Amino acid sequence: MTTTDSSPQHVHAELLCANEANIQHCATALRHGQLVAFPTETVFGLGAAVTQLAAIQGIFKAKGRPSEHPLIAHVAPGAALTGWVAEVTPTMQKLIDAFWPGPLTLVVPKGERMPLEVTGGQNSVGIRCPSHTVAIALLKATGVPVAAPSANRFGKVSPTRASHVLAELGDRIPFILDGEVPEVGIESTIVSLLNDQPAVLRPGAITAAQIEAVLGVPVKTHGEVSKTPNANPRVSGALEKHYSPDAKVWVLEASELEALPVQYKTLCVGWTDGFLAQADALRELHADVLVEALNNNASDVAKALYATLRQADQLACKQVLFEKPEETAQWEAVNDRLKRASA
User: Fold this and answer.
1) Residues near 299 by beta carbon (within 8 Å), at least 6 away in sequence
2) What is the DSSP letter of 124?
3) Exposure winner among 10, 56, 70, 293, fewest CB in 10 A?
4) pTM, 2 dp
């Protein structure tokens, strides 16, 4: 089944600061079947209580998201998982102890209480415990898991500011809970525990090597998994083209900047001296070239990535020239998002 009606709901989102009263108000709204956008340490999510099937369907409608794309269920620290997952295995418990609250989603067999509407019709569910204080307070107050993909139109750039959510979904959802800017900035690592060997289905801030260190067993990297995508459960953020701004995204080495014809307003984004020097030279030749310098650190680039892609659209750029990251585990998640944004 596929949701095709993505027309506005003729509402105007209420932007609420994250104080105790507003968190309780939003928790009540979730329990009564309304949608609430809220911050996590990764990106802003668009939440519905998993017990409210009409609200879950409302997520797909608001985003224009196909309903076979599974959602991730978010739980509070220490929340009972009985019924929501089939079993908390020793492997699952090790990862919970090591990485929750935090940006790690575990894909496990679903429990009888978890609706198929959340899982995209699959018998597995992605579940995680976010570390953002506002998300934790909201989940505790709601009292049930909250299904929440990123709070943006399907396939577009994920939001890392409440203003991003308001601009994109403000006419489709009733509440946006504001809070501190997400400290990670890209979506969680997704690891599957459905088979004997754990496998990273989507790279994020937590690497396969970190998971291996906790479990003491080999973990399939995302690169290995991507060679046999049809053998894995469907998960969020796995489409070839995703996280895409309106501007065309190019991922280039510094040496490739010289050869690229600049015919439109262009934003060059880099973090090493060589790339930024070439970008500055390009700016001297073309008045419609802008340069954005980021810190030369994978975590800092990840945190700034989506806001930078959105900035390109706000500046009416036709293209964004991104520096090609290193091919290392630390940069894997940034490489993954840029690859999909530029597809």
Assistant:
1) 184, 205
2) E
3) 10
4) 0.92
Q: What whole-number distance in Å separates Cα of residue 339 and Cα of residue 342?
A: 5
**How many CB atoms are closer than 10 A to CB 331?**
19
158/245 Cα distance (integer angstroms): 10
C-alpha closest to that of 225 among 198, 249, 199:
199
Task: Check whether 174 has a pLDDT greater than 90.
Answer: yes
Count other Cβ atoms within 10 Å, centred on residue 2: 9
- Cβ atoms within 10 Å of 200's Cβ, excluding its own: 23
Residue 240 pLDDT more than 70?
Answer: no
Which residue in the block uniquely carries the two structure tokens 């439109």? 264
Cα gap 181→321, rounded to integer Å = 25
Q: How far apart are the first and last CA of the chain?
A: 26
Q: Classify each residue of 261-283 as buried b or exposed e, where b means 16 or more C-beta atoms within 10 Å of its C-beta.
A: ebeebbbbbbbeeebbebbeebb
255 contacts: CB under 8 Å, gap ≥ 6: 278
d(CA 192, CA 173): 31
Residue bearing tokens 């569910």:
125
Band (pLDDT 50/70/90 cuts) for residue 1 is: very low
CB atoms within 10 A of CB 89: 14
